[in-house]
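Throughout our pipeline, every protein is held as a single compact record rather than as scattered files. The record that follows is passed on verbatim for readers who wish to inspect the format.
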Amino acid sequence: MSNFAKPQPSERSEERCRQILDAATECFQRHGFHNASMAVISKTAGMSVGHIYHYFENKEAIIRAMVEIQARELVNRMDEIRRHPDVLVALVERVDDGMARNTLPSSAALKIEVLAEAARNPDILNTLWASDRVAMAKLKETLIAAFPPLAAEPAHLDGRANLITALFDGLAIRALVNPEFDREGLLAALRLTIQTLLRESPVGRSGAT
């Protein structure tokens, strides 16, 4: 009998799904969503088309899985940041990581490809909305941990969470239209913005007694 335990079905399924998603990501980046057929994805993944359909019913299902994974990864990052003794310091320290992820040319192209498909496909759009609600809720928890006064100001909390999200989402566009941008300058500006948003009292409340 072999000393090596066989992977459990769930583990193997997860491995296969990851293999398919990695291949699909590469194909979407290289060919675009509509030009990346299931045949192209299967060839890149090194498995049959029928095998892919065993895990994903179509390309839309693959995109939904990608979006959901990204949301889970963001939730995990926020949980990790909130475990830091100084949440604001942890947020600022992770700004460079967020900028790097969002300005990587391949990642930027994929994000824009998914957004373009969401504009045409209500199912993908609904997936984006659902994932965004989860991610925003976790981000707001983290912002409150960094700057507790925001807990009493829901409108300002929502505004700052949306602004921070918009800043990082917009990096994908900047990376494509201006790949030679000053990264150090942008990084410094992002850090300053986060620090200001989480140190300043809501407008009209500063200096109130």
